[in-house]
Amino acid sequence: MMNYTKTFFKTGFALIAAAFLTGCATINSMNSGDPRDPWESTNRVIFKVNETIDGKVLKPLAEGYQNVVPSPIRTGVSNFFSNLSDLATAIHHLLQLDFKNSGQSVSRFVINSTMGILGLTDVASNLGINRTVEDTGQTLGSYGVKQGPYLVLPLFGPSTVRDGLGRVVDLAVDPFNEIVKEREAKISGNILRVVDTRAQLLAAEEAFEALAFDRYVSVRNAYLAIRESQVKD
């Protein structure tokens, strides 16, 4: 496992270096001048790095996963991780003083963890208990913390200063990482989660790319609009 891990990171660093060197030379002239994105030149370079890594590593893995793993198993994997995230969502609803949705998220977790066999089946949704998703960035936003400048994070993608700080907290208290203590199981589980999430985006990506003139601007505008809506909900 360690050899595969080392190879993965070596490949990743090589791709980062190559994309960074080519990106710096071509991207500075493409700034859109959006006041929400004062670091656009740097963000575009990181965006290009992320796109390169995605195209060379993550997307092929996701396509292979989708082609090889049967749909019911993929659904079970998605449900399992979504079920764990309901715990974090319940806490964020509570911090936002949204007691109704906090209780609903707890109910979802209990029902799916028992009747749904450790969350592999989303029984709660079939019972009309719909899923909501909250994170630290949204919680900070609910208390009036401004989003700050747009920011593209290496590997993680679109964000803002507020959401980037929130992501650090979310990763630190991630339920899966708290429950799973064995290092290799934790690494394998997180890789599976990332690949599964990427596979879910494959269909939507085709439609998005067909409409996007400047992919960077399209991703940025979509992200900022979605996050603003999520904070206000």
Describe the structure.
- The chain is mainly α and 233 residues long.
- Helix content is 73%, strand content 3%.
- The chain has one domain.
- The chain contains eleven helices and two strands.
- It has a two-stranded antiparallel ribbon.
- The longest helix has 29 residues.
- The N terminus is likely disordered.
Architecture blueprint of SSEs:
Blueprint: H1 2-26, H2 40-68, H3 71-95, H4 99-114, H5 123-126, H6 136-142, E1 150-153, E2 157-160, H7 161-172, H8 175-179, H9 183-200, H10 202-211, H11 215-232
Antiparallel strand pairs: 1-2
Helix pairs in contact: 1-2, 2-9, 3-4, 3-9, 6-7, 6-11
Short description:
This protein has one domain (2-68, 135-232).
The total count of strands amounts to 2
- H/E series, N to C? HHHHHHEEHHHHH
**Average pLDDT score:** 88
Low-confidence stretches: 1-29
What tags apply to this protein structure?
single chain; globular; 73% helix; disordered N terminus; mainly alpha
